[in-house]
Amino acid sequence: MKSAYELAMERLEKSFPSLALTEDQKKELAEIDTGYRAKIAEKELFLKEQIRKAQSAGKLEEVESLQKQLASETRRLQEDCETKKEKLRAKFAG
What we know:
Blueprint: H1 4-15, H2 23-56, H3 60-93
């Protein structure tokens, strides 16, 4: 007799079959990750320098604004990355 866990996993597999990726497909997904990590790092370097300058000048409101912008930009880029990877995975499945 199967456990509840095994039954649930079988139902999940029927609803959302797992997708075995080829090495080339894995490379494509990794390239997207690498590209977006570079974009995020570039944005962080730029904005952290701006934050440092604003802190040195004592512009606390500008520091807060730049920190919010950094968080927002990072989140947006991460979401864009995941969206692109999901589209690519859908293309692989179809």
